[in-house]
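Onboarding guide, step 5: your first structure request.
Type a short instruction followed by the sequence, for example:

Predict the 3D structure of this protein.
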Amino acid sequence: MDSYRAAQVAEPNGRFEVVEREVVRPGRNQVRLSVEACGICHSDDFFVSGTMPGVRFPLVPGHEVAGRIEELGESADAFGWKAGDRVTVGWFGGSCWHCTPCRKGDFIVCENLKIPGWAYDGGFGESMLAPVDALARIPDAMSAAEAGPMACAGVTTYNGLRRSSAEPGDRVAVVGLGGLGHLAVQFAVAMGFETVVVARGPEKAELARSFGAHHYVDSTAGTPVAEALQSLGGVKVVLATAGDSNAIAATVDGLTPRGELVVIGVSPEPLGISPLQLILPGRVVRGHPSGTAQDVQDTMDFSALHGIRPTVEIVPLAEADAAYQRMLSGAARFRMVVARG
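The system replies with structure tokens like these:
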């Protein structure tokens, strides 16, 4: 039997070790991928730490996967895929097709969502199985290392903006300039928004402008963030990519009337927002999940058209543990990617 290498953790919060595993044949409506690259997302920590219910160890995480179809299971060809196709698999790793949200066509909020690294082995390895409904086609102009992060960080920020209430010409603020934020800024500019970046420290101003931002607000300066946003005329939408509830809540009064706070940065702490801040100006606060495989493909096509790419640090599979620790420390600029080799 053929084998492949995978980086796994044996117990909650364990260190990654590279092991040999036997190649598994794909089942009905599945494909087997030859994994070429996989981004490391902060959400991987939900699984590695054992926080998510039902996580099984040893665990192979990874939900920003890019590779090629190596083998198709029964009936998989009916969906238009063939061996050799370049594809991604993201946070949306397939749906159940039978719960109420799925029956309504809202697959990303499937009650039985199949997240790679949770429902099945993820992309921290040289091979993986995936359902056909999880696949998104990679544009020719995009490398595997660029495409992988688009399947989670990319689609989450792209969808968060395109499904917001903002229209071209509106002013939009992006909170945070990390793995999500640096992509959100590029998308916001390409969508025609006057783009404001809110981040910590004056040293990030030049970096924000290098990604196309029109304005920069230093959240550590003496002026409150909301006041700084209002001095620009207020913002129609805040896309909160930073996992910091205080930083997110500090932007609410910077919204215009009927403005919208879209939260995609995860934090366990409650948001300190009062009903009074929302009711009188008619503001809206909502959470936004990632996106389906079609949304991922839309994200990559848009990115290829506008020259948008994630900034990545690429490491070989053997260095998965060091790369994961670098992500946790916040030192990554801006996405760690584990690549075959």
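Each response can be followed by summary notes, for example: The longest helix spans residues 144-162.
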